[in-house]
Amino acid sequence: MIEVSNITKSLPDGRKLLDGISFTVRKGEFVGILGASGAGKTLTLRCLNGLLKPDSGSVVVEDQQGSKWDLCTIGKTRLRDLRRRIGIIFQGYHLVQRLTALDNVLLGRLGQISTIRSLFYGFTDKEREEALTALEKVKIGNLANPRVNRLSGGEMQRVAIARAIFQSPGVLLADEPLSNLDPSNAKIIMRMIQPLAQEMPVIGIFHQPEMTAKYCTRVIAIKKGRIIYDGDPRLTTHQLVEIYGEELRQIENAPVLTADATGEINYVNPEDHERNFY
Amino acid sequence: MKNPTIDVLSPAGYRRRATIFLVIALLVAGASAFMGFDPTMLFTEFHYVTDLFNSMSPPNLNMIWHDETIGMAVLETVSMAFLGTLIGGGFAMVLAFLAAENTMPSLPVRLLVRLFLSIDRVIPPLFIILVFVSAVGLGPFAGMLSLVLSTMGTFGQLFREIIENTDPAPADAIYSVGATRAQVIRYVILPQVAPSFTANLFYAFDLNIRVAISLGIFGGGGIGFQIFQAMRLLHYHDALALILLTVVLIVGSEKLSDLLRSRLLNRGSLK
Amino acid sequence: MNEISIKPVRLSLLRRYGRVLLPLAGLSILAQGAAWVCGARWDLFFHGIADSMRFLVHILIPEWDAFTDMLQPALTSVFIALVGTVIGTVFSLVFALLAASNIAPAWLRQATRFLLGLERALPEIIILLFLVAAFGLGPFAGVLALAIGSIGMLGKLIADAIEELDPVSIDAIAAIGASRVQVILFGVIQPIIPSIVSFALFRFEYGIRLSVYLGAVGAGGIGLELYRSFTMLDYGRAATALIVTLILVFLSEWVSNFLRKKIKGGRFQ
User: Fold this and answer.
1) Would you say A178 and A186 are in contact if contact means Cβ atoms under 8 Å apart?
2) In sequence order, what are the residues at sequence separation of 6 or more whose Cβ sits closer than 8 angstroms to the Cβ of residue B251?
3) Nearest neighbour of A143 by CB, restricted to C1, C9, C11
4) Phi/psi of residue C57, nearest 5 degrees
């Protein structure tokens, strides 16, 4: 569970970047955060990660024993301990290019291994096998050995997800994980993230409302540092315009949604896609 | 770029270039006069060069096969360069990590190390070899120590820049899982800098072979010393043979290190 | 992208450490051998460091009166570098023209490049020894050594720059009916002057250090002063020479940077 209360962050000249952001996400929920560029989505996520300290407010997470901690007020060592409980995947994958996929996945547990052991011994065989299992969960077990700089974008993002799975966090964050991927890969990734919500709260920033409509359980929309919507992921066009601004109306390719958004906005022939993957 | 031909042929361009040439020519003339350097001497006294060439040829290649001190001298030069690169390079790597922003959070430590590296780079190698010779005596040991210092200074700076230029994104991600700085250095930064470091160490070795030869003259031992002796004692045939040997050695070591480097980096055996 | 490698997931101890330990072992064996050849000994080292500490402290007190003596040698060293670099650049330019594929025929280019490579393999100090044996001690040998020594590197750099020229600039000059010489002067050399100056400045900085070094071997200048005072155990004077050398190096770097900025400002065309 992760509980955000009243986060505020201002620029030195007084302008508010984040203004009273509050929400709580529990296990089982897959939250999508939407908003125009610069609205404050990434800032919020960085507060959830402990990377950024807001000017006021609190971010409370649970550790393995169940005790609650406020990321904004704890010290550096405790923060580092708690960051093991927070998994995060990025738009740019953030993998170490010269290492193999397996090694990249293993790095996910560095926070849980003593420094001495990690420097001089590395990872145990058991850990290596678990890492391989994580890779198999994202269906690239056969790509464990090549260096990741030889993998495609979609494969790299799957390695990142495997790394997060291997880390076994208590909450998973995602910073625009689909933005560098083509639509069919985006769907694959979304399909891999969705089931993880059954084990932990998942919060992701997305620029694809059609994706959040289909896969998320809840959508939070941020505009100018404030939450303007928190609820059903299936948004009407009117609501989307509210979130993204008037420009959306003018973009011809804008995703068109109706009240029950089960219609797919696809750039790929659906049957082909289904057959090739699952 | 504007059409340069117009600029060139314009009177203003011509005048400016002419003045610059004139300034340089005057500088050179003044400097030559000051030093007592007479360029015409090159032509009038050129026969000295040809005379010397004649007394040098044919090169006494026999000596190379039969005189065992020559073999030892080659070994000394190579060993000096090898150890100087190994130890100096090792120190350079350590110092680089201590001086780079993303690996050493403490500012005073960084500044101190960078100061040390700057001083090391600026001190004339002549001075360093003289100090070491008076400290540990003539011979390749002094030369090796000099090489350690000079390699450390030059490559410490270079390695630091390489470390600071690594991609911060994966480091960011691994800090996010709760890793310590040491772990991030070992697993994220090290794999990124390892190929560069290795390539540069090979380059350092090539460089150091030449420096080792120069140092030989100031008491550093090795082939440099042999050549110096030969010239001093007017054993010109020997000297030419040794000079040829030097050229072969330098070219050979360059080719060898190129080969080793490409094999090492292509096999990707670096973690 | 279906690469099924045979690398195992479980790591035996050998695999785990082999990549690091084996090269390390090999290197240490080589290092031991090298150390033996060099006559390196720990006791000698520490003893020597202790000794040098003693006189290095002494050396921090330069002999201020000697400063004026250093002026002339310092200037000599600078001028050796200056004249040597200028002459060397001119020589290199000639060779570069012969080594550029868009100017010289293929056989000439290959031969010249080979010669340039050979020259690069000759340490300047050996060139100096040769010239000293031919012409005697003094700045003459120094200037020539610097000039000749720069041909290999400058020649290659300039030749590369020539080869990278857009053929348009050469053709443009030829098209207006210029003679061969004019084409080379204005179509080839003119556009690369900023590069040439940049290379020459770089060589000049290197040349100052070189001139100090070669000075001790016979070219004269402040290097000789440093060497002489040191070997005569006149450490105070040696310290003075050292300080003057440091000043020289800094000044030369500063001047070089200054000139570079002026060129970047496009004042050189």
Assistant:
1) yes
2) C117, C118, C121
3) C1
4) -60, -45
Provide the terminal-to-terminal Cα distance of chain B, rounded to the nearest Å: 45
Q: What are phi and psi of A31, to 5 degrees?
A: -95, 130
- Measured over the CA atoms of residue C174, residue C177, residue C183 and residue C187, the dihedral's sign is negative
Identity of the amino acid at B173:
A
Q: Are C235 and C184 in contact (CB under 8 A)?
A: no
Task: Indicate the burial class of C9 (C-beta count within 10 angstroms; 0-12, 13-18, 19 or more).
Answer: middle
Using the beta-carbon criterion (under 8 Å), do B136 and C45 form an inter-chain contact? Answer: yes
Confidence at residue B201, expressed as pLDDT on a 0 to 100 scale: 93
Q: Where residue A205 falls among pLDDT bands split at 50, 70, 90?
A: very high
- The ipTM assigned to this model is 0.82
Please give the sequence-ordered ranges of beta strands (E in DSSP) within chain B, or none if there are none.
none
pLDDT in tens, A99-127: 999 999 999 999 898 888 888 888 888 89
Burial of C231 from C-beta contacts in 10 A (0-12 / 13-18 / 19+): middle
Interatomic CA distance for residues B133 and B145, integer angstroms: 10
C-alpha–C-alpha distance, residues C237 and A128, integer Å: 65
Q: Residue A210 and residue C91: Cα distance in Å, rounded?
A: 69
Strand order of the β-sheet with A226-231 is A86-90, A171-175, A202-205, A30-34, A218-223, A226-231
Judge contact between A29 and A194, C-beta under 8 A.
Answer: no
A95 touches chain B (CB under 8 A): yes
Distance in angstroms (rounded) separating the CA atoms of residues B221 and B80: 9
Crossing angle of helices C190-214 and C67-98, in 10° steps, is: 140
Distances (CA, A) of B151 to B83, B154, C49: 11, 5, 19
Q: Which two tokens stand for residue C127?
A: 């060139």
One-letter amino acid of C57? V
Residues of A whose CB is below 8 A from B180: 80, 110, 115
Sheet with A16-25: list strands edge to edge.
A16-25, A2-10, A56-62, A68-70
How many CB atoms are closer than 10 A to CB B224? 30
Q: Is the dihedral of CA B213, B216, B222, B224 positive or negative?
A: positive
End-to-end CA distance of chain C: 52
Judge whether B250 and B209 are in contact, CB under 8 Å: yes
**Of C3, C10, C16, which is closest to A143 when you measure between CB atoms?**
C3
Residue B30 CA to chain centroid, in angstroms? Answer: 32
- B1-12 pLDDT per residue, tens: 444 444 555 677
Which pair of structure tokens corresponds to residue C208? Answer: 């100052």
| Token pair for B92 | 């350079």
Chain B residues lying within 8 Å of A107, measured CB to CB: 174, 177, 179, 187-188
Q: Nearest CA to A150 among A190, A187, A99, A92?
A: A99
Cα→Cα distances C188→B4, B173, C151, Å: 11, 51, 19
Mutate to test the interface with B, among C19, C120, C125, C176 (most CBs of B within 10 A): C125
> How many Cβ atoms from other residues are within 10 Å of residue C172's Cβ?
17
Cis peptide leading into residue A233 (ω within 30°)? no
* pLDDT at A248 (0 to 100): 60
Q: Which two tokens stand for residue C257?
A: 């940077």
Cα–Cα dist B235/B55, whole Å: 9
* Mutation site, A98, A112, A166, interface B, largest B CB count within 10 A: A98
Q: Whole-model pTM?
A: 0.84
The tokens for B91 are 């120190």
Contacts with C237 (C-beta within 8 Å, 6 or more apart), sequence order: C63, C66, C225, C229
> Cβ–Cβ contacts within 10 Å for residue A228, how many?
15
